[in-house]
Design goal:
The protein is 35% helix and 20% strand. With 455 residues, the chain is of the alpha+beta class.
């Protein structure tokens, strides 16, 4: 018998305590005003000094979740990590996280790291869901961790960076239920974004191809989701964008998400016959012969559908972009930062019973669309929302760093990436209480971490 209502029981987010202002970065970089803020839709970008790496981010977010929700390590039976930030070609981040579980005698803990660009966190979540719904489940809970540090070399891609981590507790009778039988995936080989140089944190990016891959994956996943939805609910009166009360997307930058919501509308439009197109959308009649594969870089189509679906974007997607706008691209946690943003942007009463569409994308490429049904029980949802009350105040408590200082700190990261032995120089005093940080790396590349005391 299936465990009932398997999904997300608890969620914790971590982002850097320092940020650079994108308007100031525009001036510093000598680009036109609005290039980053309007063109990309970004306001601030969080970043990490050499005191933080993927291990410290994940240690912090897991410790914080267990502490905030009062969860004992003995209650966890599976621990999955999704990341593309690799500090060791063999040793997993999950193995480092065992430092939080071994003192409690917890070593029977399944799961390991999953890597494929920004998709690894979703793969980890699916693995956790599948485990709870399988014959392997031993009634304990699963813990999913997504974390990354997104950094780029100087140039046009640098303002699309960011960093962060998300931890999610997965089990039955959840307030955020992962819908069954409607999960849709699209996988394909592509060199749109990849990291072949293992000595560098920086990726190799084909910007135009990356956008095309993202949008084509969205098309394929959404169309297949619709097909599976029709199969599961053959008598449903509606199928499409109106099925969702909210849609969240992997967010390389906010402007692409606004275009993606309009793209969902374009898909719905194309799936109508031509007569229906004219009846339902008379203002778009000039596009009634449009074909999806010809529209990836069609500015006229893009502009028309952005306008037509702006009100839908404002209602269903913009509230999910708070963290993306303020922190930047977290990579694997990105789409789940959208979930957190959605949850902190509405009241418990508003969210009850809502359906959230989720599109996750990782270059190379891997992508999925699925949906989350929010419980109708305020006693289940209320505590989850209350536990996220720290998010907005923590965002506002961050320290703004001048672009020149940000650049200096990025140069230190670049120069000392994989250095050993190494003593980090970043200021520990600026870190949030409860944050783990890199204390040292010895001559055998062994990393030692300490935690900033909680007030």
């Amino acid at each position: 018998m299936w465990p009932e209502n398997v999904g997300i029981l608890a969620i914790e987010v971590l982002f850097p305590s320092q940020f650079v202002d994108q308007t100031e970065l525009e001036v510093f970089d000598g680009v036109s005003a609005g290039k980053y803020t309007i063109g990309l839709g970004q306001s601030r970008m969080g970043f990490c000094s050499d005191r933080q790496d993927i291990n410290s981010l994940c240690l912090s977010v897991v410790h914080n979740l267990l502490e905030r929700y009062g969860v004992s390590p003995n209650e966890i039976g599976r621990l999955e990590v999704g990341t593309e930030t690799i500090v060791d070609k063999s040793k997993s981040v999950k193995s480092v996280l065992m430092q939080l579980f071994e003192p409690h005698g917890v070593t029977d803990l399944e799961g390991i790291d999953t890597t494929n660009a920004c998709y690894g966190g979703t793969a980890a979540l699916f693995n956790a869901i599948n485990w709870v719904e399988s014959s392997s489940w031993d009634k304990r809970l699963a813990l999913v961790v997504c974390g990354d540090i997104a950094v780029y070399a100087k140039g046009s891609a640098r303002p699309t960076g960011g960093a962060g981590a998300i931890a999610m507790l997965v089990g039955p009778n959840a307030p955020l239920i992962i819908d069954r039988s409607v999960r849709a995936s699209f996988m394909k080989h592509a060199y749109d974004f990849y990291k072949p140089d293992l000595s560098s944190e920086y990726p190799t990016v084909d910007g135009k191809l990356s956008i095309q891959c993202y949008l084509s994956a969205l098309d394929k996943c959404y169309q297949l989701y619709r097909e599976k939805y029709s199969k599961k609910y053959p008598n449903a009166l509606k199928n499409g964008l109106e099925n969702f009360d909210a849609l969240i997307f992997h967010t390389p930058y906010c402007k692409l998400v606004q275009k993606s919501l309009a793209r969902i509308g374009l898909n719905d439009y194309v799936l109508l016959d031509k007569e229906q197109r004219s009846q339902v959308f008379p203002q778009l009649d000039q596009f009634k012969d449009v074909q999806l594969e010809n529209t990836y870089f069609d500015r006229d189509v893009e502009k028309a559908f952005l306008t037509a679906y702006n009100a839908v974007y404002e209602e269903k997607t913009k509230p999910s972009l708070l963290l993306a706008n303020q922190v930047g691209n977290m990579y694997t946690p990105s789409v789940y930062s959208g979930l957190v943003s959605l949850l902190v942007s509405h009241s418990t009463e508003y969210l009850l019973g809502k359906t959230v569409g989720v599109f996750s994308y990782g270059s190379g490429l891997a992508s999925s669309m699925y949906s989350i049904s929010i419980t109708q029980d305020p006693a289940k949802l209320g505590p989850l929302i209350n536990h996220l009350s720290y998010v907005k105040p923590l965002l506002e408590s961050r320290m703004k760093v001048d672009p020149s200082e940000f650049t200096r700190l990025m140069e230190i990261r670049e120069k000392n990436n994989h250095a050993a032995p190494y003593e980090p120089s970043g200021d520990i005093s600026v870190l949030f209480p409860g944050t783990y940080y890199l204390k040292s790396v010895d001559d055998k590349h062994r990393r030692v971490y300490e935690r900033v005391p909680k007030a």
